[in-house]
Amino acid sequence: MTVLVSRLDASSAEYGARREAMLAKIAELEAEHAKAVAGGGPKYVERHRERGGLLPRERIELLVDPDAPFLELSPLAAWGTEFPVGASVVTGIGVVEGVECVITASDPTVRGGASNPWTLRKTLRAAEIALRNRMPYVNLVESGGADLPTQKEIFIPGGQVFRDLTRLSAAGIPTIALVFGNATAGGAYVPGLSDHVVMVRERAKVFLGGPPLVRMATGEESDDESLGGAEMHARASGLADHLAADEHDALRIGRRIVRRLGWRTAGHAAARDYPAPLFDEDELLGIVPEDLKVPFDPREVLARVVDGSDFDEFKPLYGPSLVTGWASVHGHPVGVLANAQGVLFGAESQKAAQFIQLANQTRTPLVFLQNTTGYMVGKEYEQSGIVKHGSLMINAVANSTVPHITIVMGASYGAGNYGMCGRAYDPRFLFSWPSAKSAVMGPAQLAGVLSIVGRAAAEARGQVYDEEADAAMRTAVETQIEAESAAFFLSGRLYDDGVIDPRDTRTVLGLCLSAVAGAPDPGRAGYGVFRM
Amino acid sequence: MIGRLLVANRGEIARRVFRTCRELGVETVAVFSDADADAPHVAEADQAVRLGAPLAYLDPDRLVEAARRSGADAVHPGYGFLSEHAGFARAVLDAGLTWIGPSPEAVAAMGTKIEAKALMAEAGVPVLPTIPLSPDATPHLSLPVLVKASAGGGGRGMRVVRDPAGLAEAVASARREALSAFGDGTLFAEPLQEGARHIEVQILADEHGTVWALGERECSIQRRHQKVIEEAPSPAVTPELRRELSDAAIRAARAIGYTGAGTVEFLVSDEGFFFLEMNTRLQVEHPVTECVYGVDLVRLQIEVAEGARLAALPPSPVGHAIEARLYAEDAEGRPQSGVLHRFEIPGVDGEFGLGARLRLDSGVVSGGEVGVHYDPMLAKVVSYGGDRAEAARRLAHALARARIHGLTTNRDILVGVLRHPDFLSGALDTGFLDRRPVPATLAGPGAVRLSALAAALAGAAANRAAARRDGVLGGLPSGWRNVPSQPRRTAYDAEDGGRLEIAYRLTRDGLRAEGFEDVALVSAEPGRVVLETDGLRHAFEVAAYPGVVHVDSPLGPVRLVPVERLPEPSARTSPGALPAPMPGTVLRVEVKPGDVVEAGQPVVVLEAMKMEHLIVAPASGTVAALHVAPGARVEAGAPLADIEPEREPETTPAPKTTSAPETPAPETAPAAETTRVTDGAPDIEAYEAAPTEAHSEARVEPPAPPAGTTPAEARTEGHAEARISAGVEPPAPPAGTAPALGQAPVAAADPAPGQAPGQAPGQAPVDATDPARGWAAGQDGGTGENPRLDTRGDFPTDTHAGPPPGAGIPPSGAVPGAEAGSHSSGAAPGADPGAAPSGEVGQR
């Protein structure tokens, strides 16, 4: 047991400035979240309420266990796109009758709950989380189908929604659909392919083709209720297993279904008793510098995140730019890899590869705390094999079979993003802090590189390089890259599972570690641990 | 010497007698009805004898047989039940056993009012003039007067007359009632004494001619004519008056050769004091006398029965004692039944004990069940102090801080009285509580809201504790959200019927609760929440039970019913909603919107499975809506009609259906289930001519009797009323009927037995001149809810504010056979949807 010591001076001006900057970012984040919560705006919310409908988050609140935590996933989906923040669907992890479930709820106040390309990606991500972590999957359905103008982005890949549902079921993961309203055309296959289906009387509407389409197709006159009403499905088609009197009743029945699943998670049980960190989580606000070029000690973060601020460091003297070690979070043992100086050298890469192998040997989940500018460049490093060493680390990360959870605290540039288990390396969960940035390189460097390349090209052609244009180009590129590497932007494109308040890091990790424990351990792959 | 004593009673008085027996080294025998099999008095006794049906405590033969079987050599009757039943006393003596009480002759001597008064007048005891009322002549009286039945008791045959115009009718109705109830229509009148106090003198007499008067008890705090707070000495009695009262009481005892413990009751007014009656047994409120005189009255009763001699002079009184009776009843006096989850009075230093500063005589224990059969008195709490103020403060505090969970009680009202300026100044009269001087609850609206918040936060803590136990994200912050969208909402129904919505979030920065902006959360555990408001910390003790949460704090006890977050649809239907019990076709609709219907009146006839099913109104009221027409196909649970109830029903009976071909036979009427016997906890002492009386009342809200209802019909609907009159030997019950014991005495005691079960409709009307009319109406709604066989001894109606006859007796027609439902299910074999009234479709 090694209790971390904090050197953070909460009374310093530097701390104060960092804290203020972070609080400003958090305020921005909350404002963006509020947009998602507002759904389609007061007018559509009011109209929905007048019809007696609950809002998606109200449905979720009634579905989950009282006073249990709920982690909303991808709340910023579609941020920075033409579609409203949140992508007209709410997804998350909540506890229903003591069972951790993945829950999705379409938001009928946002363009009728129609799916746009971001809705699709957000939904697919939720299903992926359910599948990989083996969590029962509960859909609260009320969607007007696809956003037709963007159908080209939705129609073909959208089939995966239904494929996922039945594959979840095939994998033994229960799927439950509570149908509150429209689930028509393709949407009809959500209840169609779910294990358990509840429909709300006089509200649910589930059919392949509505009355106009039927008349066009066959000339038959029909109405909504006879084609797809809840009563009809409960009595005639058998598509509904349960007929709910109203929304509350549907949620009650949904909870009852989950209770009867008798669901038991397969993973390790966490310790029940564990100490809180010794240091105040509030101080996480004052750690990250406004300028990401300035490194910070990730041990200050760990001291405020891990149980008892207790961290046993591995190879502290070797490759000190990367901190590795063992800890636990909310009783779950973890191995931690955290960037300390930004740059990854050969030693850091070898240390990481070895540590990842050790974690695989003991089947310990890994937490990556990213703040990296990438692998070191330069003659000396190339000659000493930085590509080989970086490959070593990326290889280890890519083939590690223990669950990974990544937090982007600050910078995530270059192949450091890969080696530190960026999105492409399939961490089970990935969250960003509000000031984090991810890109192939820093905006200034990228603009500089473009400038150098341009100058070289001009010179090769014997032209005079237009310095004025270069300056303008550099500014424009820097601005664009800056914007496109920001956490909100990347979260909007589903490159993380959400942007979180740094003070929530421990809670989010605890919830995710419990989720990843839901899936059985696949076992480790080949070879003994290579000493690096 | 007595070796083994049987107590022919139950509850706290049985435990009280056992306590003294243990001290004396006398073995104890309890008797118990089926309903009392798990009662504390049974567990405490050395032996216990099962008597059978709930009313078996009223069966002298069984009791004597129980004494014989258990080898007891003495019988203590307690109070109530057969304690003033001369026939029982005689039977005990005839069986060769010792009777702990006066001779049967002494009991009988107090039998009728006119004779008892004459006897007392002869002995020089002051009595009010007796004005005879012959059946033929209408006398000229100086009004107001109180008309009484000579054979009366329990307020029957009693009328207050203020207006000459009402006299004839009052006399006529009183006579009818007296005839019906006692078989004796003899009436007389007394000048009405208003604003009088009820004061009684404890006496104790041995077989050797010594008679003690152990001072007086003040019993003026009464609700609905039953005593609730008693004290000794009376704040209104001067030493001189005390001497006069004591002398009169001793004369009264000597006049009838009295032995043992007894009580002589007087009415004390500005005009003097007048003999009311004599209670020939131990009194409910005897502990206050014990406290002040330092005697054990039960011990003295036993010793006197063994032939011991009393000292020449009684001990002298020291200090002041006050007794409060805790009843399981709501603010309207409706008896409550159910599980008493917790019963703890802080500071008690003696159970049934002498020398205690705070004494508890309780018939119940935590976790016990309070049934519907007997009087709902839970316990007596007695405080003793150097003076009245000290005793009142101690008692009020102990009651206010008591943890009484599971049932609504009169505790708050008791505390309110004990802290009321008029009570503290000693300005008491029997009408004190009728003026509603204290609020029904100690906790004001603000305290209730704060308590509801505490309940919600304790609930959250309990939920998190359960999550920790189950290992499901238990260590994470309560109600954590990364994207907060709304507060956590929960709701409670308060006792006044109001709904309290609590919306809160536990954030990094502490509690955020809507409407509680000034409230900070100091700590929250499942059982205890500390809140700070305006710089003041308040600790709330929270105890959650299925369906009820109790919050105790210095702000006052609060009982809350949690509102289900996701109730089953069937539970959400309005009280008057009438859902179809099974799928079927509507054959006929018997009412139209706006019709006034009686409970049990057919509303819709449903044809299902080739049977006609009668759907009857669950409660009396108005047809607010009709949802079906003849020919309509309905599913189980489909709404047929809405009946707007007449008044707020306490319970919502399930809709009844009756298969058309038959009506429930009388013997299947649920009388046995719905009768309640009083163990005499309500004082029998105020009893007039009928020393023992019991009646049972049907449980369900009593609507007005439909015109023309015959008693026989009423009986089929489940009413049962039983009463035992003084000196009438209840015969053995007819075999084979469950409620037989309840009904048997009826037939025997009542000259018009056919009327008993439903209580003759003729008795219900209340005399227009009766000042207690308002009470009667309240009582009507009250006792009808919770029928109990009530020995109703404590009708001190001689205080001239007596209830009208028939008050408290529910009119007939209230119980549309509860088992009609089972008939219908029997009649619809395979009508499975009835099992899923939520309207949900089962999986196939």
Automatic annotation (TrEMBL), chain A:
Signal peptide: none annotated. Residues 280-532 form the CoA carboxyltransferase C-terminal domain. Residues 22-273 form the CoA carboxyltransferase N-terminal domain. It holds the Pfam family Carboxyl_trans. This is Acetyl-CoA carboxylase carboxyltransferase subunit. It comes from Microbispora amethystogenes. The lineage of its organism: Bacteria, Bacillati, Actinomycetota, Actinomycetes, Streptosporangiales.
TrEMBL record, chain B:
It holds the Pfam family Biotin_lipoyl. Residues 787-797 have a biased composition (Basic and acidic residues). SUPFAM superfamilies: Glutathione synthetase ATP-binding domain-like, PreATP-grasp domain, Rudiment single hybrid motif, Single hybrid motif. It comes from the Bacteria. PROSITE patterns: ATP_GRASP, BC, BIOTIN, BIOTINYL_LIPOYL, CPSASE_2. Its cofactor is biotin. Transmembrane segments: none annotated. Residues 651-675, 737-768, 809-844 have a biased composition (Low complexity). This is Acetyl/propionyl-CoA carboxylase subuit alpha. It comes from Microbispora amethystogenes.
